[in-house]
From TrEMBL:
Record keywords, A-Z: Cell membrane, Glycoprotein, GPI-anchor, Lipoprotein, Membrane
Pfam family, one: Trypan_glycop
Entry annotated with the keyword Membrane: yes
Protein's recorded name: Variant surface glycoprotein 3062
Recorded GO CC terms: plasma membrane; side of membrane
Length: 460
């Protein structure tokens, strides 16, 4: 006891000695349990491998390669939708011009150009329908896999703090701590924005075999000093509450792109094949990236070359199209009844020269007439007569066109009714010469009456 008192007056050298001194009346058995727990706790050290730099960088290459996919989806859908509306409105304007103007050359030109514009509207609408499903799928798949990888890498990165710590789950160069690895930012963006674009993903990023810029299967478990103490990848766990994995099994993360297996002598980490995922432009069904690949390839195939959201430019493009002459001959045969031959060719050339225009002037005259020609019917209901180019909506253009169609359809009936009325009037007022002569009074000489015909020199 005197020795213990002398030690308690001096500065303690061990925390355990202080605890024993202050707890000298605690039963011995309990002290043994505390000591055993402390010793055991000091031996509980994580022993799982970190993900090697080649492994997590291969994962980070995925969002880098496909980061423009959502913007491509937005850009193509937007451009095709606007282009379909533009081509449809131009078709209606040309049809209204054909109905509103009396010049035959302009009428024929407008008919041909309207036919071509309608074809573009139909084709663009079809392309839009084709693009919808792959665009939605590609955008969703890209956003999903990018977010999963970003969250996973950020979790491991934020958990291991700085290189002063010897245990970590992301290895850098030479299997050291990944703190100084600048490429980490390629898949850990805090916020993501997608600029609309219509530029397809190039063949350096996606082709008929898969994603050339990515890797094939990678063995991704690091083993260097400090890189073998990741608690998340604990090897050979027992049923111990102090360990992350409490059973020997295989787990898959990031939609099965990353596989973790602790059922052997050491944990294995595998990054699945990311590059060669397709054959002849079609993804293999066993590929984790199959939906992403197929949707991106389908979206890349949707053309937007003819799509234009500017009516004037679209009209000029159509007027300069090499198929205009053939379309014009077809219209002339149908409307004017011309047979194939010199007369048909001459008439077609006349319309091209006088109305459609050639080379850099193609479409100019027709567009000017669209801007300058007023319509006889105002779809808004007031008395003003708007120009064709000033009518803003497809609905109003359809209303104006319907007015002209119904007006032209009623003209033959109106003419027929007028002729019938005139015939009846003539029947009611016309008299024979005999009736007129009988009505002439005796005192009125026959030759003074304009309705009287001289038969002979004597009076009637």
């Amino acid at each position: 006891t005197p020795n213990l008192k002398r030690q308690s007056k001096s500065r303690p050298k061990m925390l355990l000695a202080l605890k024993v001194t202050s707890m000298q009346h605690v039963p011995l058995g309990f002290l043994v349990l505390i000591t055993a727990f402390c010793i055991q706790a000091q031996k509980t050290v994580a022993s799982g491998p970190a993900i090697a730099q080649t492994g997590w960088q291969a994962l980070c290459a995925i969002p880098t390669n496909v980061k423009t996919a959502p913007g491509l989806a937005i850009g193509k859908l937007t451009k095709l939708a606007r282009a379909r509306a533009t081509a449809s409105k131009l078709t209606l304007r040309l049809q209204v011009l054909e109905a509103a103007i009396s010049n035959n050359d302009t009428q024929r030109a407008a008919a041909v150009l309207a036919q071509l514009a309608a074809g573009i509207a139909t084709k663009t609408g079809s392309n839009l329908q084709t693009a919808i499903t792959p665009a939605i799928t590609a955008a969703a798949e890209t956003a999903d896999i990018t977010a999963r990888i970003s969250e996973y890498i950020n979790l491991l990165r934020s958990a291991q703090t700085t290189s002063a710590k010897t245990g970590y789950c992301l290895a850098g160069a030479a299997e050291n701590h990944a703190e100084a690895d600048a490429t980490l930012t390629s898949c850990s963006a805090v916020s993501v924005s997608y600029a609309p674009t219509t530029t397809n993903l190039p063949s350096t990023l996606i082709d008929n075999t898969g994603f050339p810029g990515l890797n094939n299967q990678i063995t991704a478990a690091a083993a260097g000093t400090g890189a073998n103490k990741c608690v998340l990848h604990e090897a050979q766990p027992s049923a111990n509450a102090g360990k992350f994995h409490q059973a020997r099994h295989t787990t898959r993360h990031l939609r099965q792109l990353l596989e973790h297996n602790n059922n052997g002598a050491s944990t294995t980490i595998t990054i699945k094949a990311l590059r060669d995922v397709a054959t002849a432009g079609k993804a293999r069904h066993d590929s984790v990236l199959a939906n992403l690949y197929d949707s991106l390839m389908a979206l890349n195939r949707v053309p937007t070359g003819q799509a234009s959201d500017d009516e004037e430019q679209l009209l000029k493009n159509i007027a300069a199209d090499p198929t205009v002459a053939a379309q014009l001959r077809s219209v002339l045969q149908r409307i004017e009844g011309l047979k194939p031959g010199a007369a048909l060719e001459a008439r077609a050339q006349q319309i091209v020269k006088n109305a459609i225009g050639e080379n850099d002037k193609a479409g100019n005259d027709i567009w000017n007439k669209i801007k300058d020609t007023p319509v006889a019917f105002n779809p808004k209901g007031d008395e003003t007569k708007p120009k064709i180019a000033d009518i803003e909506t497809e609905e109003h253009l359809v209303s104006v066109l319907s007015y002209y169609v119904s007006t032209k359809a009623s003209k033959p009936k109106q003419i027929e009714q007028k002729l019938k009325h005139l015939e009846e009037s003539l029947k009611a007022t016309t008299k024979t010469m005999e009736e007129i002569c009988k009505e002439i009074k005796e005192k009125v000489p026959c030759n003074e009456n304009p309705n009287c015909k001289f038969l002979r020199s004597e009076e009637l």
